[in-house]
């Protein structure tokens, strides 16, 4: 611990942690809808619980007052992943890293799957990434496969004050920083955050469909000086109804 921050996880043997249970929402196979892996067949592993309550959240069924759909051991989760053909995993929630040691153990188990080539973690920017980055650096398969997709919350989310700016120090070139833009103010704040804190990783900007027309976001992106930024649209909202689950 350092000033209240946990630097690394100390896990028991696999014989113990493989039986740890996590509260779950769903595990399903579809195509990744956004970011660098958009369009690739992907297994989504969605755990229950979140420490934020974003105004525009589209997965409110993944935290209280909703209830978990089921519980599963790490072994059972891995068995379900193995029942699909996809070689990519999206570890999501809720907030997938909120379960700390259990999240870390599940990541290790995922990385040990030979057929998996990419594990991207949709984390919300409020969870301390340092112990998970140290975990990645300590495990060769995690180094090769694991990527953070850090969703930095902006004013329209109502949760910007919860963001942990220290997380920018943990991101590497293979990681992504997602900015969900709900207003022109959000875009202005994005530029300020990037200018002051960005180090490494792919910057992705995505519209809140109800309040930021994608065409306007493209205009803002072209007018800006954001380095290495790309537009990211949620393909599943184009292909399926926005409220349809398991797709």
From TrEMBL:
Binding site for [4Fe-4S] cluster: 50, 54, 57
Pathway, per record: Purine metabolism; 7-cyano-7-deazaguanine biosynthesis
Listed CDD domains: Radical_SAM
The keyword Iron is assigned to this record: yes
Gene Ontology MF: a single term: magnesium ion binding
Domain Radical SAM core per the UniProt entry, residue ranges: 37-242
Keywords, alphabetical: 4Fe-4S, Iron, Iron-sulfur, Lyase, Magnesium, Metal-binding, Queuosine biosynthesis, S-adenosyl-L-methionine
Recorded superkingdom: Bacteria
Residues annotated for Mg(2+) binding in this entry: 59
Cofactor note as given: Binds 1 [4Fe-4S] cluster. The cluster is coordinated with 3 cysteines and an exchangeable S-adenosyl-L-methionine.
BP term (GO), one: tRNA queuosine(34) biosynthetic process
Residues engaged in binding S-adenosyl-L-methionine: 56-58, 94
Essential cofactor(s): [4Fe-4S] cluster; Mg(2+); S-adenosyl-L-methionine
Enzyme Commission code(s) on record: 4.3.99.3
The protein's enzyme class: lyase
Residues reported to bind substrate: 31-33, 46, 92
Reactions this protein catalyses: 6-carboxy-5,6,7,8-tetrahydropterin + H(+) = 7-carboxy-7-carbaguanine + NH4(+)
Subunit structure: Homodimer.
Function: Catalyzes the complex heterocyclic radical-mediated conversion of 6-carboxy-5,6,7,8-tetrahydropterin (CPH4) to 7-carboxy-7-deazaguanine (CDG), a step common to the biosynthetic pathways of all 7-deazapurine-containing compounds.
Family under the similarity heading: Belongs to the radical SAM superfamily. 7-carboxy-7-deazaguanine synthase family.
Protein's UniProt name: 7-carboxy-7-deazaguanine synthase
Annotated source species: Fictibacillus arsenicus
């Amino acid at each position: 611990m350092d000033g209240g921050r946990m630097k690394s996880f100390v896990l028991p043997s696999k014989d113990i942690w493989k039986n740890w249970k996590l509260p779950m929402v769903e595990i399903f196979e579809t195509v990744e809808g956004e970011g660098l892996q958009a369009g690739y067949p992907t297994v989504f592993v969605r755990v229950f619980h979140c420490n934020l309550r974003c105004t525009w959240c589209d997965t409110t069924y993944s935290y209280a007052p909703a209830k978990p759909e089921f519980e599963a051991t790490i072994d059972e989760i891995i068995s379900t992943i193995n029942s699909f053909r996809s070689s990519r995993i999206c570890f999501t929630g809720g907030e997938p890293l909120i379960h700390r040691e259990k999240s870390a153990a599940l990541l290790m188990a995922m990385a040990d799957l030979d057929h998996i080539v990419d594990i991207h973690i949709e984390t919300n920017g409020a969870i301390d990434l340092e112990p998970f980055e140290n975990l990645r650096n300590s495990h060769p398969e995690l180094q090769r496969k694991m990527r953070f997709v850090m969703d930095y919350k902006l004013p329209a989310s109502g949760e910007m004050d919860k963001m942990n700016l220290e997380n920018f120090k943990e991101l590497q070139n293979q990681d992504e920083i997602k900015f969900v833009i709900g207003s022109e103010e959000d875009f202005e704040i994005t530029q300020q955050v990037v200018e002051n804190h960005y180090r490494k990783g792919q910057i992705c900007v995505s519209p809140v469909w109800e309040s930021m027309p994608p065409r306007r976001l493209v205009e803002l992106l072209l007018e800006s000086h954001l380095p290495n930024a790309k537009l990211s649209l949620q393909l599943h909202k184009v292909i399926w109804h926005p409220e349809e689950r398991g797709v």
